[in-house]
Amino acid sequence: xxxxxxxxxxxxxxxxxxxxxxxxxxxxxxxxxxxxxxxxxxxxxxxxxxxxxxxxxxxxxxxxxxxxxxxxxx
Length: 74
Description:
Blueprint: H1 9-23, H2 38-43
């Protein structure tokens, strides 16, 4: 369903980042904690429903205030 024949390097990089992100979001069977994920142990951030809204590669349209200046967008 992608509009190109070969995935761009940036997309492959983000796909690997997303896979590692989700692997660290859930507790490991043989890990040091049965209830806390590696991410929760290191950063203190617990997963919530906001992390599970979209899957990788989903098209989204956002409505953010912006202008056409050369200032960086956050």
